[in-house]
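Input chain follows. Return structure tokens only.
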Amino acid sequence: MPELPEVESVRLQLAPVLTGRRFDHVEIADTRLTRPLDPATVARELEGERVAAVDRRGKYLIVRFESGRALLVHLRMTGSLLHAQAGTLPGDPYRRAVVRLDDGSDVAYRDVRRFGTWLLLEPQEVAEYVDARVGAEPLAEEFRPRDLAAKLAHRRAPIKAALLDQRTVAGVGNIYADEALWRARIHPLRPAHELDVAQTRALHRAIRRALELGIARQGSTLTDYRLPDGTTGRMQTEFKVYGRGGEPCSRCGTPIEKIRVAGRGTWYCPQCQPPPGYAASSSSSRPSRARRASSV
């Protein structure tokens, strides 16, 4: 599923293409894309709208119009957007919608598994809708370690599960949660409320770093994710743990292991990220994995 770095990379390419342009013609071919609303009705409502800005909140791409309305696009698992000059869109059986802009170019929406959504909101609905579904932006200056601590203070769920909850931190999904926890040396099963001040600060830094690297590499292309110019992301070549089961940890050499947390495949280093309670149950006559890992 596209996460914050992927959606932000899409936004960065679409913003200069869409800003100031008018939606001249809109065709929505998939009824699931706008349900429960009729796609033909939504298409008519979009026609004539002029784009004021292209924003992002968590995993939501937000196309803001001069009228005050906004189109919220959620790519879900396999959604992608392609910009092409008039008449140059390639044939695609998975194309679900096309927007013709007033400069003659097209923006096509593709979705293999059809889980993505388009939602047109009135001006007074936008902030309330998004705020109810996502938490703080992790790359914003306003997002501080103490804000993360407050979100985790009463969460008894595993820290990996807490991070996947979009109300905790907007935009962090399975990939970047694993990458951040590895950087912070925190086991994905550690109860969220048990993190101390130092661990919370380390996790705050790690979340930012993992997401920044993802944006710098224009996201991760594992299957369907593409940028609007048709190219792929490059972050998948630099994963530290995600999808690397059995490979040596780049920090300590221990083989990466895979477990399931909150129903999701989860990769971690058993040396760098000791399990909850390991140090307490270890013999006092030998160093714990946590202490050994700190010297790596």
